[in-house]
Design goal:
Blueprint lengths: L7 H36 L25 E9 L5 E6 L7 E5 L4 E8 L6 E7 L6 H15 L8 E5 L5 E2 L6 H6 L5 H20 L2 E11 L5 E2 L2 H4 L4 H4 L9 E9 L4 E7 L17 H14 L11 E5 L6 E2 L4 E4 L21 E4 L5 H22 L2 E2 L4 E9 L4 E3 L5 E3 L5 E2 L5 E2 L2 E2 L13 H11 L4 H7 L4 E3 L14 E9 L2 E5 L3 E2 L1 H17 L6 E5 L8 E2 L2 H4 L4 H4 L7 H17 L39 E3 L4 E3 L3 E7 L16 E7 L4 E7 L5 E7 L5 E8 L7 E13 L7 E8 L3 E4 L2
Parallel strand pairs: 5-6, 11-12, 25-27, 26-28, 30-38
Antiparallel strand pairs: 1-4, 1-8, 2-3, 2-7, 3-34, 4-5, 8-10, 8-16, 9-13, 10-11, 14-15, 17-24, 18-19, 20-23, 21-22, 24-25, 29-31, 31-35, 32-33, 32-36, 34-35, 36-37, 36-38
Helix pairs in contact: 2-4, 7-8, 11-14
Catalytic activity: an N-acylsphing-4-enine + H2O = sphing-4-enine + a fatty acid
Pfam families: Ceramidase_alk (PF04734), Ceramidse_alk_C (PF17048)
EC number: 3.5.1.23
Length: 747
């Protein structure tokens, strides 16, 4: 058959047909990208009254001949004030910091694709929770130094949720009141520490590998609201062997030679082994696990020093307690494991969970040791490598205005923020103190009258939206001097190969976390990203209290009363995070908007504790010994010395010294004193005793461990005092003091 030749006109018509087909395909693809998110989520039961929002995501690229990620790790001090400030977490009046048990650290991990382009930052911080103000300021300073390299979509800040860290770094009024005022001194200290940890990680980046492992942790947790958990469908509960999430996920980071770089572990347990009678700043059980792991890897270094970084991050810990002996009436000893967590004599204030140790220090060590041991085991046996591109997606969303599809014909909405009566009851880990009970389903005329007189009455709209929650504080309708709760909330996902880190803006309960992981995992799978490991990283970016399931919400225990956006909060998060997962899976994040930017308030209620001049007693000077040491101690005993002190909060401004104390051993061969412990060591405790008219004492304890070598020792005190001469501005000056020498002998 002879070849047929085409005329110029035919050639032009064929070319035109091909071009029209290509344009049609492109337009259809664009239509699918821009409308697919809404349609898909409508089919899966969720919608919103807002426009879909997300920030740009780095373009993913095929990973051929994968040769490892660029990895950087960094750690920096973010302790802040250790005196004249409320401890954040329990909300207990009078629980002020009066010293330090361990330092608080920001631990940063940077992972970048082999060419260093697409990257992500995960930061675990030894604080109660990340405040929106803290995150916004950290992002601002990163932008000033690095431009667009580290952004809101690829940086996650996560709090470990220790309840023994300083407050005062919030901007929303409820948290400012709980902190007894905003404290710029502590805010600046925290921001500086977080940014510095990221800078260290950025400087230390090298080629390496990431391995992942999972395993169950036993003996470290109980569910503190089991009656709420039982509200979930029996068929759902039957799928799980426990009413807590026991699984720990560990990321092991090594360089290309196999040398250790760092670890991130996620595990669900409240860091409340240190109870609300504690006054020493510390990182609680999760921090103790980090302490043990870093001490093992950084041999020869003092705590807080050395290249290896180990972060034990929070997860869906909302209803999970480390106090494994469970709730008992402290006046009678009988169990108070009942729906209202109340005792026959004394009511809910007597119902407190303890354990597993003899005191809170012992319990912290036991729980921390269990967590550390499992992480060590998983770290040693990790063999599954994480490979693949990095991507990230972020949205700012208005959580007070989300429509949730209950079925094909009915919808419900999230609410303006409000707290229920059971919020004031506290939990078995720390009771509220005003005789409120968990599980409260009715309003109290007495408290309603007080609230109405002071704060106004909640509207019928907010009451109806939050049912069956009886509203104690209608925070979403309170805006003086600033809004009491956030409306604009961060939602964020970062993926590293087959690992997805979801940044949860609050405390998800056990079942909330399980449903959430399944929903996000299913969304990834439906768009081709199969077998994703979804990590629920808790207390990230902004704090919004708790997130229960709809069924748990009906019981109105503490966690449900603290679910501030109403009974459909979890469903709203399903919608937003599934949209982010889809955007990442379809490489369409860049097409989504970033959403309404949250506020950064300039005028805040400041802490009212005055900065007064420090004074030494007549005839004394700062650092003079008031109670000397004994000349000899055995291992297992406590060496204690008391000095003329000065307010430790001065050291959060003048950072000449980076520790309040050192324990030093004399080395005869070199004829020098070598530091063996600092105030980040678990074996040391620094107590500050505030007196009158600027006078104070400082007591330093060394709990001598069995591993202590016999020999000659001394204890040094390093502090700062505030001085102000007539008509001159105050200055903060440093001082040092040394105890007498003492001997340590073995038993």
């Amino acid at each position: 058959m002879a070849k047929r030749s085409f005329s110029m006109l035919e050639m032009f018509l064929i070319f035109l047909l091909v071009m029209m087909t290509a344009v049609t395909v492109a337009l259809l693809s664009l239509l699918f990208i821009t409308s697919g998110t809404i349609e898909n989520n409508r089919d899966s039961g969720y919608s919103t009254t807002q426009s879909p929002q997300a920030t740009q995501s780095p373009q993913t690229t095929p990973f051929q001949n994968f040769s490892g990620y660029q990895i950087g790790v960094g750690r920096a001090d973010c302790t802040g004030q250790v005196a004249d400030i409320t401890l954040m977490g329990y909300g207990k009046s009078g629980q002020y910091a009066r010293g330090i048990l361990t330092r608080l650290y920001s631990r940063a991990f940077i992972m970048a694709e082999p060419d260093g382009s697409n990257r992500m930052v995960f930061v675990s911080i030894d604080i109660g929770m990340v405040s929106q103000r803290l995150r916004l300021e950290v992002l601002n300073r990163l932008q000033m130094k690095y431009g667009s390299l580290y952004r809101k979509d690829n940086v996650i800040l996560s709090g470990t949720h220790t309840h023994s860290g300083p407050a005062g770094y919030f901007q929303y009024t409820l948290f400012v009141i709980a902190s007894e005022g905003y404290t710029n001194r502590t805010f600046e200290y925290m921001v500086t520490g977080i940014v510095q940890s990221i800078e260290i990680a950025h400087t230390n980046m090298k080629r390496g590998r990431i391995l992942i492992n999972k395993g169950n942790v036993d003996g470290a947790q109980i569910n503190r609201s089991p009656y709420s958990y039982l509200q979930n469908p029996q068929s759902e509960r039957a799928r799980y062997s426990s009413n807590t999430d026991k699984e720990m996920i560990v990321l092991k980071m090594v360089d290309l030679n196999g040398d250790d770089l760092g670890l991130i572990s996620w595990f669900a347990v409240h860091p409340v082994s240190m109870n609300n009678s504690n006054h020493l700043v510390n990182s609680d059980n999760m921090g103790y696990a980090s302490y043990l792991f870093e001490q093992e890897k950084n041999k020869g270094y003092l705590p807080g020093e050395g290249p290896y970084v180990a972060a034990f991050a929070s997860s869906n810990l909302g209803d999970v307690s480390p106090n494994t002996l469970g709730p008992h009436c402290i006046n009678t000893g009988e169990s108070c494991d009942n729906p209202n967590s109340s005792c026959p004599i004394g009511g809910p204030n007597m119902c407190i969970a303890m354990g597993p140790g003899q005191d809170m220090f012992d319990s912290t060590q036991i729980i921390g040791w269990i967590i550390y041991q499992k992480a060590k085991e998983l770290y040693a046996s990790a063999s599954q490598e994480v490979t693949g591109p990095l991507a990230s997606a972020h949205q700012w969303v208005n959580m007070t205005d989300v429509t949730v599809w209950l079925n094909s014909t009915h919808t419900a909405k999230t609410c303006k923020p409000a707290l229920g009566y059971s919020f004031a009851a506290g939990t078995i880990d720390g009771v509220g103190g005003l005789n409120f009970s968990q599980g409260a389903m009715e309003e109290n005329p007495f408290w309603d009258t007080i609230r109405n007189q002071l704060l106004g009455s909640p509207s019928e709209e907010i009451k109806e939206c939050h049912k069956p929650k009886p509203i104690l504080l209608h925070t979403g309708e309170m805006s003086r001097p600033n809004p009491w709760h956030p409306e604009i909330v961060d939602v964020q996902i970062i993926t590293v190969g087959s690992l997805a880190i979801t940044a949860l803006p609050g405390e998800f309960t056990t079942m909330s976390g399980r449903r959430f992981r399944e929903a996000v995992q299913a969304e990834f799978a439906s768009y081709g990203m199969q077998n994703m490991t979804v990590v629920t990283s808790g207390l990230c970016n902004v704090y919004t209290h708790y997130i229960t399931t709809y069924e748990e919400y009906q019981a109105q225990r503490y966690e449900a009363a603290s679910t501030i956006y109403g009974p459909h909060t979890l469903s709203a998060y399903f919608f937003f995070f599934r949209a982010l997962a889809k955007a990442i899976a379809t490489d369409s994040v860049a097409n989504l908007s970033s959403g309404p930017e949250p506020p950064f308030f300039k005028q805040l209620i400041t802490n009212l504790i005055a900065n007064i001049v420090d004074k030494a007693p007549t005839g004394k000077t700062f650092g003079d010994v008031l109670q000397p040491l004994e000349p000899k101690y055995r291992v297992g005993e406590v060496a204690e010395v008391t000095f003329v002190g000065a307010n430790p909060k001065n050291s959060a401004e003048n950072r000449t010294h980076h520790t309040f104390l050192t324990v030093e051993k004399y080395e005869a061969t070199s004829q020098t004193w070598q530091i063996v412990h600092n105030d980040a060591s678990w074996e040391t405790r620094f107590y500050w005793h505030k007196g009158l008219l600027g006078q104070s004492n400082a007591t330093i304890q060394w709990h001598i461990p069995e591993t202590a070598q016999p020999g000659s020792y001394r204890i040094r005190y390093l502090g700062h005092y505030r001085k102000q001469d007539f008509l001159r501005p105050a200055v903060i000056l440093s001082f040092e003091s040394t105890s007498s020498t003492f001997e340590v002998v073995t038993t």
